[in-house]
Amino acid sequence: MKIGIPASRGYAIGQAFIKKHVELNITEEKVQDVAKEKDLLRKACEKSKVQLEKIKKKALDSMGEEKAMVFDAHLMLFDDPEFIGAIEGEIENNGLNALKAASDVSSSYVAIFESMEDEYMRERAADIKDVAKRLMNNLAGIEDSFDIEETNTIVIAHDLTPSDTAQLDKEKVIAFLTNIGGRTSHSAIMARTLEIPAVVGLHDITESVQNGDILIVDGIEGRVIIDPDHETVTKYVALQEAYNQEKEELKKLVDVKAKTKSGKRIEVAGNIGKPEDVHKVLENGADGIGLFRTEFLYMDRDDMPTEEEQFGSYKYVLEKMEGKPVVIRTLDIGGDKQLPYLAMPNEMNPFLGYRAIRLCLDRTDLFKIQLRALLRASVYGNLKVMFPMVSSLSEFQKSKELVEECTVELKAEGHDVSESIEWGIMVEIPAAAVMADELAKHVDFFSIGTNDLIQYTLAADRMSEKVSYLYDPMHPAVLRLIKMTIDGAHSQGKWCGMCGEMAGDETAIPTLVEYGLDEFSMSASSILRAKQVILEQE
Ligand code: PEP
Ligand code: MG
After folding, report:
1. pLDDT of 362-393, one tens digit each?
2. What is the CATH number of the domain that holds 90?
């Protein structure tokens, strides 16, 4: 048995799939033997076609003809004399190696399709990217690490990036396990959003299991049992049933509003990373969205989302929430969240470095695209915007100046902007908590980001399983800062929420209710349990 950090509740019994971590190494190296390189390309195309035929067949069985047709389009590209011919041309005429030639040609195809007027044609760029990725992986001999074919799969990795986690196919993946990470690393947060059990910080799980091993994952106690005997399987099947039954029973609270016994109404909201996550939040009867981590819109792609794309996502969430509050956080990139297409400095302490609002105030070109999208979407619902990682008032003020600039521009262009947007900050740096009463004079609300606040207060990296014993939400210093923040907000008649994982921690909720926290925002899967705990408070 292996013991790690329980990161997402629930039980799973399935087979191991070990995700290999391999980067494509594209070099400028020229080829000597052109015929050999063209042969490599041909073989990679053949291999890709065989893979695609398999996927297409599965898609036909599971999703129907229409979805499967997408793979016909992919297959056709491998026989397209223009596309493949252009790659061959680069090998023949410019002596490029096949990998570099495939990368260059596909990038230029993608750029052409992305610049087209016609939306259908623009969408084809995504198909070319998929095809190019498959072709390049096959050229480099890399197995597509997320080509998971079996259902009941437990993914095992050294670490999963947030975008890896976002790609997990819930139809097939029933749990995941990682060597590193803590309860508040972003892959753990994503697991709770996906509602699949996860255990992280297992040190050497990638070495301890083989592909295909049968595993039991206990996401409540943080246990992994490798090749269990019959008796153990029976025991866990019973635990799983009891857990599912308990979840079923909590459903009676979907339409119940959270109130303490003395009648104090408390908002219970959901955290989301992608617009589609809004459905799970609504299914669980949330009062609103307390944190939309917009950086996920920027991940799992090769370029920045445009103003139009972002506008579409924000409008979607606001409309689906039908007037309920939606707190959208501006881009919080850096720390454990990186974008493949945004060069970031190599820092010794990325969590203390160039991230979140610091990056946005430096790259106002990127920031303004997001602010414009938010302002345009504001007329479709009840929007509140907050800035991450604020350490001093000037960062909030500079951000608000950019908001003003964007508002003037948008109005001149004929767009409507809501007059009632609330502007707040995340309190996740101790300096902000200490200065909360002053900051509260300027902002409309606070949302406490305990995931970061705890790591900065206790100097215990939230990603490190080695110091996870220090990472204690109930440490008196953390509690004191939380209380100061809530009191600071209330002293100026402002509201204070919490969107860090502590808000959904049933052992912390009673203390937070006592401190007067107004809004609790958490993964959708924690909402009903949190309501139950609040209903039991005096
Ligand atoms: C936090 O720090 O508590 C928070 C909610 O933000 P993130 O986890 O995205 O850093
Ligand atoms: Mg944070």
Report:
1. 999 999 999 999 999 999 999 999 999 999 99
2. 1.10.274.10
Q: Clarify whether residues 283 and 362 are in a common domain.
A: yes
**Pocket of ligand 1 from Cβ distances under 6 Å:** 291, 293, 332, 428, 449-452, 499-500
Annotated binding site: 293, 329, 428, 451-452, 462
The ligand with the least distance to the CA atom of 453 is 1
Taking residues 19-43, report their average pLDDT: 88
Catalytic residue among 45, 74, 186, 360: 186
The answer to whether 457 and 478 are in contact (CB under 8 A) is: yes
Same domain, 131 and 206: no
Binding residues for Mg(2+): 428, 452
User: How far apart are the CA of 210 and the centre of ligand 2, in A?
Assistant: 35
Same domain, 200 and 52: no
pLDDT, residue 113, reads 85
- Answer yes or no: is 42 within a domain: yes
Number of folded domains in the chain?
A: 3
Q: In whole angstroms, what is the distance from residue 385 CA to residue 427 CA?
A: 14
186 is catalytic: yes
SS (H, E, C) 338-398: CCCCCCCCCCCCHHHCCCHHHHHHHCHHHHHHHHHHHHHHHHHCEEEEEECCCCCHHHHHH
Q: What range defines the domain where residue 126 resides?
A: 34-140
Residue 503 included in any domain? yes
Q: Give the chain's mean pLDDT.
A: 91
Cα–Cα distance, 486 to 502 (Å, whole number) = 15
pLDDT in tens, 238-262: 999 999 999 999 999 999 999 999 9
Q: Does any domain span residue 26?
A: no
